[in-house]
Design goal:
heterodimer; A: alpha+beta; Butyryl-Coa Dehydrogenase, subunit A, domain 1; Butyryl-CoA Dehydrogenase, subunit A, domain 3; 3 domains; 4-stranded mixed sheet; 4-stranded antiparallel sheet; 11 helices; B: alpha+beta
Chain lengths: 372, 396
């Protein structure tokens, strides 16, 4: 094992820290969140630093970095609560396309994902089916002239309205699972864009006899489910690092507040009961950060059952520690923590939402039970 | 000792339940049960429906137009109204300034203000906390200087709940800058329409607007609007805070939220079956049901022992009541799961149709969870309550 950052990772992390401090400041984040459209400038800055092409192969315009590089990068993104669609597009969709798509599709999409010119998101969740990755309601049937028709509804598509295309899971007429790459401008598509609790966006997408060429098929049969699972694993690892970064920054913010705010003639930081709460927060953050390392290590773990155990454990810990650190930070901010006027609230919400994305704690516990 | 409900208490519960189910307007009930935002008129309509029944002041003695109910009857009333989906009763008049005026107000103040609380002819708000004085309330800086038969008030109040609707504010001010912290404080009744009073909204974590900052600039308040003696405001404030803390146990709220939680769990499938049937979820719901049972008995014990003047036991109620309210909101969010991620402010305002995902009561689960974090902060943080318990109950 080697825990030191490579020279490239260190430089990237340093540059990201500076970029995020300036461009993802409280005021700029809030201003961006007020506009449903993606901020093209912020997005291109992430592309320019190499965040979007991080793990995409060099032959497709990326940097071909090893999976472990997700950790330093997403820690920094989490510190700045970066809400742009890095995880759904540059991590999950890029993983899926690289693993499952044919050469033509890879050539068409991976360079665009790496440069940020294209955003692709996963449309895999269906209403009433929580985190189930097996599609059920979305159906594909053949129509005339080698054309397929897609019908059904997907929801909670992370930044779905900002995407130029979605990777959509569906069933064919034999109930075989398949994955399709559906351009957002295809016919018979309705998108409803909704803000989320953590000031990101998600979309509800309805397909009504949407025509697609046969070339839209990314994967068919078990390969489709495996591809989706792999994409979720990469997304989970990135999300765990993001959560640990957010916790780390929230600790700093809370320490600053306790040192500044005075009650009963002394700074809040002087009260032992509050010091102990901060100590508990640090312990929780360290455990979650350690599990973010476990998650990054999982991506190169060849034993599939062990890999899933590691990722389920990391996601559980990120959710539990994230919730505790977030609740504690609000409590320590007192009345100011109840308001929407400080950034503690934004960190609280992101850390709350970690549990709701990519499989909640009940889902991870069920997975661990099946893997035991 | 007889720990069973008497036949009279059972009948009373049935009477209240039937009344609430019959008279509570369905539009208000639906908003409450879906956690959509309530507005001024929603509260006032319900208060006046109760007033028409003679139940407008359930915690007051009959001499002041109240029901004269005992503590157990009040508790039954609160729980049944909440379960039916009624808005909470506005505490500012009924539970806060009302009891203070009954005990410390002049006859003139009692006659002028108390009857108008019952139908919310006057909407009251609480001017206590200041930006620099939260847990350390006695350090408040808003000052009132005598000028003839008026006080001239300058300062800033914060966390003033529903001040945007308020006609009057009971306000702690410093009338003697030279006295020690608690001694120099007086309580004034301030007409919110007086020149120099301005209200600025504070958005809270859930995106809602319940609390405000209130700025007071050269506000002229007749000396006749001072409650009791000058310099005794701290005594009145403490008396009032005791009342606030028993209500803050939120027993009715807990019962209502438990009902919503179960309904949500019954309507939310996981792997093809309602989450309510999941044994892990059943365990967690059972735990919360036991918590609520214990909270209810604690409240009854405290009420029976202390009646109108709860002592430090109120801190025990506040700590557990607020934690259980948070646990309920957290479990609701977990049941909603992925459906708690989207946040649609338009729907929260009840002006827009519901577009999903999931059952409509899931839509506010994320915001509700965020909002409930306030319960361990307002009305004296959990840390402050533990300090009170350590000093006053443990003698430490």
């Amino acid at each position: 094992m080697d825990f030191s950052y490579t020279e490239e990772q260190r430089m990237l992390a340093d540059s990201l820290r500076r970029l995020v401090q300036d461009e993802w400041s409280f005021a700029r984040r809030r201003a961006r969140a007020a506009d449903p459209a993606l901020d093209a400038r912020a997005w291109s800055q992430l592309a320019d630093l190499g965040v979007l092409g991080l793990n995409i192969a060099a032959e497709h315009g990326g940097f071909g970095e090893a999976p472990a590089s997700l950790l330093p990068v997403h820690l920094e993104l989490g510190r700045g609560l970066v809400s742009e669609p890095v995880i759904p597009s540059a991590v999950m969709s890029a993983t899926l396309i690289a693993a499952c798509a044919d050469a033509d599709m890879r050539r068409q999409w991976l360079p665009a994902l790496a440069s940020g010119q294209a955003i692709v998101s996963l449309a895999y969740q269906e209403p009433g089916r929580r985190y189930d990755i097996e599609p059920e309601q979305c159906r594909v049937r053949p129509a005339a002239d080698a054309v397929l028709q897609l019908s059904g509804a997907k929801h909670l598509v992370w930044h779905g309205a900002a995407a130029q295309a979605w990777l959509v899971s569906a069933r064919d007429i034999d109930f075989e699972p398949m994955l399709l790459l559906v351009p957002a401008d295809a016919r018979g598509v309705q998108v409803r864009d909704t803000p989320t609790l953590d000031r990101a966006r998600c979309a509800q997408i309805v397909f009504d006899d949407t025509p697609l060429p046969a070339a839209a098929i990314v994967a068919h049969g078990q390969a489709a489910i495996d591809g989706l699972a792999a994409a979720l694993e990469w997304g989970t690892a990135a999300l765990c690092a993001h959560a640990a970064g957010a916790m780390e920054r929230l600790l700093e913010i809370t320490i600053d507040y306790l040192k500044t705010r005075r009650q009963f003639g002394q700074p809040l930081a002087a009260f032992q009961v509050l010091q102990h709460r901060m100590a508990d927060m640090l312990v929780a953050k360290e455990m979650a950060l350690s599990m973010a390392y476990v998650a990054a290590a999982a991506l190169t773990e060849p034993d599939v059952r062990q890999r899933r155990r590691m990722l389920a454990g990391a996601k559980l810990e990120a959710a539990r520690a994230g919730r505790f650190v977030a609740q504690s930070a609000v409590q320590l901010h007192g009345g100011m923590g109840m308001t929407d006027e400080l950034e503690v609230g934004d960190y609280f919400k992101r850390l709350t939402v970690i549990d709701l994305l990519l499989g909640d704690s009940a889902e991870q516990l069920a997975a661990l039970e099946e893997l035991a | 000792m007889d720990l069973s409900w008497t036949p009279e208490e059972r009948r009373f519960r049935e009477t209240v339940r039937a009344f609430a189910n019959d008279k509570l307007p369905p539009d208000i009930r639906d908003k409450v049960l879906r956690h959509q935002r309530l507005h001024r008129d929603d509260y006032i309509r319900w208060h006046r429906i109760l007033a028409d029944q003679g139940w407008g002041a359930p915690t007051w003695p009959q001499a002041f137009g109240g029901t004269g109910w005992n503590a157990i009857e009040r508790l039954i009333f609160e729980v049944e109204c909440f379960k039916a989906g009624a808005p909470r009763l506005l505490p500012f008049g009924l539970s806060m300034i009302g009891p203070v005026l009954m005990k410390y107000g002049s006859a003139g103040q009692q006659q002028r203000f108390l009857p108008r609380i019952i139908r919310v002819d006057d909407w009251w708000c609480q001017g206590y906390s200041e930006p620099g004085s939260g847990s350390d309330l006695a350090s408040l800086k808003t000052r009132a200087e005598v000028d003839g038969d008026h006080y001239v008030v300058n300062g800033q109040k914060t966390w003033t709940t529903l001040a945007q609707y308020a006609d009057w504010m009971f306000c702690l001010v410093r009338t003697d800058p030279d006295a020690k912290a608690q001694r120099g404080i007086s309580m004034l009744l301030i007409d919110m329409r007086t020149p120099g009073v301005s209200v600025r909204p504070i958005r809270t974590l859930d995106g809602g607007h319940d609390v405000n900052e209130v700025w007071l600039e050269n506000v002229r308040v007749p000396v006749a609007n001072r409650v009791g003696e000058a310099g005794q405001g701290w005594t009145y404030a403490k008396y009032l805070l005791g009342h606030e803390r028993t209500g803050i146990a939120g027993l009715g709220h807990c019962h209502r939220e438990l009902g919503i939680l179960k309904a949500l769990a019954a309507r939310t499938p996981r792997r093809g079956r309602p989450i309510l049937e999941d044994s892990r979820m059943r365990d967690r719901i059972s735990r919360i049901e036991v918590d609520i049972m214990a909270l209810e008995m604690l409240l009854l014990r405290v009420a029976a022992a202390r009646g109108d003047a709860p002592g430090p036991e109120a801190s025990v109620l506040k700590i557990r009541g607020s934690e259980i309210q948070q646990d309920l909101a957290m479990l609701q969010m977990e049941i909603a799961g992925p459906d708690a991620w989207p946040y649609d402010p338009d729907w929260m305002e009840a002006g827009a149709p519901f577009h999903g995902p999931g059952p409509d009561m899931a839509a506010a689960a994320g915001a509700g969870y965020a909002d409930m974090r306030k319960t361990t902060i307002y009305g004296g943080t959990t840390e402050v309550q533990k300090g009170i318990i350590a000093r006053m109950m443990l003698g430490l």
